[in-house]
Amino acid sequence: MMKIEQARVINHTKLCGNYRLLVLQSPLIASRAKPGQFVHARVPGLENAVLRRPFSIYGAKGKSLSILYKQIGRGTTAMAAIKKDDKLSLIGPLGNGFPLNRKSSFPVLVAGGYGVAPLLFLAKRMQTKGIVFVGGAKAADVLCTSEFKRIGWKVRIATMDGSLGERGLVTDVLDAWLAGAVARADVGAGLSRDRSRRKAASTKIRPEFYVCGPDGLLKAVGQRAIKNGWTAWLSLDKHMGCGVGACLACVQRIRLDDGREVWARICKEGPVFEARQVVW
Fold it and tell me: Which end of the chain is more exposed for a tag (fewer CB within 10 A), N or C?
């Protein structure tokens, strides 16, 4: 159930590049938040703006809620001026988030830029550790990798300019890993030190993808999953109006189980959809 809350700023720090981390005291929303959900914020300094701004939930623990964002426009520039103890009006948690992975699947997280925000939150809630692929244009666009490693996840990095990790698209690095790990049916090899148990695990575990980033990345990973009979959960992003499903500004064409195509609201039925549902 969504709540409206005046959240107090606990901490606001500048990360690499234009990225910032905002930590808020938001007990009502934090206690209900799930990975993949978002909040709709009224940004101080934009009182004349009609619309709130949506932000993915980066983390929620106890009474604390955190948002990772990039300063790129009028709204996020106003956000950057927020100071400790300022108040931020939030509506949330909103939308349907990621399902937690099944024991029979091996979680593969794929992020583009600050698409890592909901995926780190997801990784912290999963019982099974997996691998995360993070891509960006340059090193400054690669975030949270040390946090993933700290909680026991393997990390692979790709940057377009080669300044960090491997040069190229993150899907290039993903494809190379899939060609080795899946073709040899040893995706679960890291889950057991015992050779016999490792062999048994590898025959049961299948990759299950969780993806957040630009549409091109979502579509590319979704197509790979569909082609091979795997499952991929895609977090879609569109410009939002109300954020609660009333204005129909953020619709996406999706395919139902019976084959019919309908319009779904990203803010209400999404933002997370299984790849087979999305009609690009």
Answer: N
106-120, 184-198, 234-248: which range is least confident on average?
184-198
Which residues partner with 161 through β-bridges? none
* Residue 207 DSSP SS3: strand
Structure tokens at 13: 């720090």
- For the chain, how long is the longest CA-to-CA vector? 65
Considering the domain architecture, whether residues 191 and 212 belong to the same structural domain is answered as: yes
Instruction: Please tell me the pTM assigned to this model.
Output: 0.90
**CB neighbours of residue 103 within 10 Å:** 8
Which pLDDT score, from 0 to 100, does residue 261 have? 97
Domain contains 99: no
DSSP readout, 110-174?
EEEGGGHHHHHHHHHH-SS--EEEEEESSGGG--SHHHHHHTT-EEEEEETTSSSSEES-HHHHH
**Radius of gyration of the chain, Cα coordinates, nearest whole angstrom:** 19
Strands (E), 165-268: 166-167, 206-212, 231-235, 251-255, 261-265
- Give how far the C-alpha of residue 254 lies from the chain's centroid of Cα atoms, to the nearest Å: 20
